[in-house]
Design a protein that fits this description.
The protein is α+β, with helices and mostly antiparallel strands. The chain has helices spanning 7-12, 14-25, 30-34, 41-53, 76-107; strands at 28-29, 57-62, 65-70. The protein has five helices and three strands, in the order ααβααββα. This is Transcriptional regulator.
């Protein structure tokens, strides 16, 4: 059974967020991503596989190197979810506030 991956899995892990951050400046090969990460090439490759399955990055073979590019537009799904959640909770909290004000004034 193939596990369906989504953007939230991509950003759930701090290592993957670090990789996204590094790639947001420019396309890099895997060796450049490994540099200064403190993680093995094999470990980075596993994270890149998840990011690729989430369609957060593209990997292109150029000679002997694989070049990674980030697809930041994929984060729009997260932005949309946050905005909808914010709207929902703001409405709920406004209703709660109104209820508490009405309850307080009726008891006085």
């Amino acid at each position: 059974m193939i596990e369906r991956r989504d953007i939230f899995q991509a950003i759930a892990d701090p290592t993957r967020r670090m990789i996204i951050q590094k790639l947001s400046g420019r396309a890099l090969n895997i060796g450049q991503i490994v540099e200064d990460s403190g993680i093995s090439r094999q470990g980075i490759a596993k994270h890149l596989k998840v990011l690729q399955q989430c369609k957060m990055i593209t990997l292109t073979q150029k000679g002997r190197e694989q070049i990674c590019e980030v697809r930041l537009e994929q984060l729009d799904e997260v932005v949309d979810w946050v905005n909808e959640s914010r709207k929902f909770w703001n409405q709920r909290l406004e209703k709660l506030d109104k209820f508490l004000v009405e309850t307080k004034t009726t008891k006085i």
